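User: Before I run my own analysis I want an independent prediction to cross-check against. Here's the chain; please return only the structure tokens and, at the end, one sentence I can use as a sanity check.
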Amino acid sequence: MSLITTAQTFTTNPAFPTADQPLTLTVDVSSVPSLADESAIWLWAWLPDCSSSCDAPTNVNPATSAQSAARFSSTADPDVFTLTFTPTTFFNKPADQIARIGFKVKADDWGNGQSPENLFIDISTGELEVSFSEPSDEYFFVDAGSVINIVALSSVSADLELKINNVVVETLTGTVLNYGHNVVESGTIEATVTASIGGEIATDKFYFIVRQATESATMPAGIIKGINYDADLSKVTLCLEAPGKSSVYVIGEFNNWIPSTTYQMKQDGELFWLEINGLNSGQEYAFQYFIDEEIIVGDPYADKILDPNNDPFVPTVTYPGLKTYPNGASGNVSVLQTSQVPYNWQITNFQQPAKEDLVIYELLVRDFDQEQNYQSIINRLDYLQGLGVNAIELMPIMEFSGNLSWGYNPSYFFAPDKYYGTKNDLKSFIDECHSRGIAVILDMVLNHTHEDNPLAQLYWNQSTYKPAVDNPWLNVTPRHPFNVFYDFNHESLYTQNFVDTVNHYWLHEYKFDGYRFDLTKGFTQDFTEGSDVGAWSAYNQKRIDLLKRMADAIWSHSPEAYVIFEHLADNSEEKVLADHGIMLWGNMNHNFNQNTLGFSDGSAIDWSYYKTRNWQEPNLIAYMESHDEERLVYRNISYGNSIPGSYNTKELDIALERVKATSAVYYAIGGPKMIWQFGELGYDKSIELNGRTGEKPIPWADGGLGYNEDHERLKLYDVTAELVKLKTSYPIFSNSITTINESEPLVKQVTLKTDPFVSNPGSVDEMNLLVVANFNLTAKDIAVSFPHTGNWYSYFANGDELGVEASPKVLQLQPGEFRIYTDIKLPAVAAELTDFVQPIAPTGLSAKVTGNEIELNWKDNSSIETNYQVWRSTGEGFELITTVNSNVSSYIDQSVEELTTYTYKVTAKNAHYTSDSEETTVTTTEFVTGINGGVSEALKVYPVPAKDYLKIDGIRGNSTYEILNLAGKSILAGNVNGYVDVSTLPKGVYVLTIKNSKDLHKIKFIKAGQ
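Assistant: Structure tokens:
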């Protein structure tokens, strides 16, 4: 933020206040328009942490209207207020922790009415002190011949000496020194007062600058706005554009932040310029401009700034050796440095992908990795390269207000924000992307700017907190309804020149490959406040002309640069821009999401195709997700459609499958494509989590959500990668006759035919392709219109062949299923990625008794990942006893009870099917411990249930048997000779006893009916 100096005054009583004694603060707010009419004001005070920056507040006292301790009292003068407080009590701190008090004066705790500057009260230590009470400013301007009234105060009676320009002009012994100085000097003059007693000395100083007219001088050839470096490494030339201003001084570390006529800039028309010499090669210097004796700003063209409020939170690992914010400065400061080590570019001949082949990955550095810097993205480029994207679009990275921002509040348009890394880190990231064939696109914000921008602060109305009416770049009031921050006037030649300079800079200094321009529909002056919002979106020729002018300026020096607009205006206007060669965002988030949700309303996706919009070139970047839209999968699991008890799109595995299907349709439609980060993993955290622009959880396993180790999410990644590879590998996607068939709302067919059509294609250059997807909640027989009969091959089925005898051919697709067919057999893709290849609902169950265990077997053990739920009943409903997956071939129920009849069934469920098997009834038998501690493992008695006989195998020696009913009555008996005839027994449960000299076996069995 710039500093606008004021004549606001304050005094303290006593003049040297101590922390533990009452202090009366008197303020005069007559020079602060936002406070001048207030009847009540409050103190907003803090204790600065002077170890880092005396502007960094700690222990802020929340002064509100409810806190009488912070409320000033009125005086007879309506602009003068007083407040008495004891610092130790006010801050609840011991005296040794209060060395200085920073404060503002506010009308209330939320309004804009406040003093513009941070003011400070130095707390006395009780030792000898001396200070100037008049003048109260550290420095000020005067005219030659004027008189300066000087008053110096000492904390105790002492020998006082006043020097002007190192010449003694007054001495006395006492506590007060008064002197009237007649200004006869020129330049910047130092005034010093010294108090001494008993060998103890204290001093204070101020400076006055004798005004002199700005020198008019022609600027050296080749000088541009901003910082100009020279072959002489001890020299720079600074240039500031400031129409209507009369004086500009450079202040900085080379002159202790005090204006000096030595550093007064010369003027050449509307440009102010100055050569600065004597710099140390390679040393960083912080500086600012002091304009018209009241405005202090950084250089709007600086490529590095220091921010006292945010730099302390930049991690050292991200920006090692960051320059410490300088003492004596206030607000954002610019940095210059001669003899900077240039970045050594490894890739100097990068060939950008063609516009129509682009697959763009939109990325926010802050939320991509927990390290939140460029190096962390470099570390994950293998992941992005594996996905197949050929362009990365960075959300805004130029210096913005704060650290944790989306970046759409830019303040310095030539300085990369330090929170993401150094300038060379950014260049290294771009260089590494280029080495992998990946273009890098910068999200550029030129619709508006933050108030910290020097272009705003140079012409600023503090009373309204808006740009002043004479601001050459900015509108006082935004000229469109959805503006944020402060609106650029794109009809202004000043703005156009600034825009062109910004656009040239990033393409050439950092080798960005193009821009995505934010909110280009705002580049208009025709909308007035209160007008119909629809008028803003309607056709606007002035806006078109402004935008075409900007694009042409870019292409004049960078013919291959991508120019992408977030325009979202009436199609009649977008068509003109698209036909001019500009790519435009196309928001299809709602439409594609309606398909994944399973709702037909608003599910048409034909507007994703540039020819549907009657555009001449494939310049439409339709997207399913962007940083501005809700996540597909989040909306699915929150609001998805379902059939109760059957198919539910809210289930995550089903939602992920349906995103695969929408992706298959999306990538088949011609034109450049875009992925918002982690859409390929089915990111399902809402855009509103932590606030719309707040930080979002990262998906990685190392410190994040673990999505990259989730099998189902990785299958979506793999499917996306295959679709991207398909799009970028074959000419059919950029040279085809495309048909989108949506005759049934939730059934999509996209056909790509070679132009001209070849009936017997023989190469991939003449390949035809068809995508069909079913977004209904039930299976659907679909009449698929193949371009021709003959053999077609499924892309996601290991190349399985489909014979098409006639077209249309009816195919059954399960809910959420998609298929891609080509008439050229392409390299095989694993069927397991989609779960839709020859879909078979798991069915079938059989059972048998082995010993005392019930073994269940299901017939289907397909490659589809399936969960089997085993249910058991004893006559009154089924209970779930276990869940197993498809790699288990059987289940043994070991919790059965003796002499109990069970009925089993299995529910088989995968992402798309739920089916119940036929029921199977089995009955348990009982084994009773024998003489030798158990039943012989070799003994087998079967079948159970028995109908005509019991077969007995594995008995040792000569044995006898006896059959008893459950009442213990003997029914049959005899010798065991291999089997026992039970045909005469009535239906029921019996006990078979087998014994010999060593063993006794008792086995319960069931006699079945005839």
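Sanity check: DSSP finds 15 helices and 62 strands in the chain.
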